Amino acid sequence: MTIEERITRLEKTNRVWKLASTGLALAMLAIIVTSCGQISGGGTSEIIRTKRLEIVNNLGKSLIVLDETKTGGGGMGIDNSQGKQVVFLGEVEGVGIMSVFNSHGKPFVALTEAEGGGGLMEIYNSLEKSVVTIQADKTNKGLVAVSDQNGILKNALSAH
């Protein structure tokens, strides 16, 4: 893969993140607008408390779900029109994570915390193997790692 192909792939990933962020912003706006709406009796609600919030389309299919993760934190999933999750934003084992999935529900990008506390971005191939990793390493320097189709590290570039 050439540098130009890598840059093109990263630009495409950036567009996906922008789309996911826009979806998150719209979901949060919907929650805010809903929470400011009138409730029976003529009053307004100052807080909405629920264990799970699910936003559905006209057919009743889930589009956005806010719920507790398996490890007890909060999470938000955004589904496509076929019911496959395309974005997850939440907590896994005490760490924040944002994952973007393809139309078949397979992961292709993840943002999370790297070992040592810096940021980490992973790009996956169609075999669900991490093939590109960009992160802040343990010494707070930038690191880019490229792996083969099986996820085996082949080359890494680090700031000196």
What order do the helices and strands come in, and which of them pair?
Layout (H helix, E strand, L loop, with lengths): L2 H33 L17 E4 L5 E7 L5 E6 L5 E8 L2 E7 L5 E7 L5 E6 L5 E7 L5 E6 L5 E6 L2
Short account of what is shown:
By secondary structure, the chain is of the alpha+beta class.
Describe it.
- The chain has 160 residues and is α+β, with helices and mostly antiparallel strands.
- It has a domain at 3-113: Alpha-Beta Complex (Outer Surface Protein A, domain 3).
- Helices cover 21% and strands 40% of the residues.
- The chain has one helix and ten strands; from the N terminus they run H-E-E-E-E-E-E-E-E-E-E.
- The chain has a ten-stranded antiparallel sheet with strand order 1-2-3-4-5-6-7-8-9-10, with helices on one face.
- The model has no long low-confidence stretch (mean pLDDT 83).
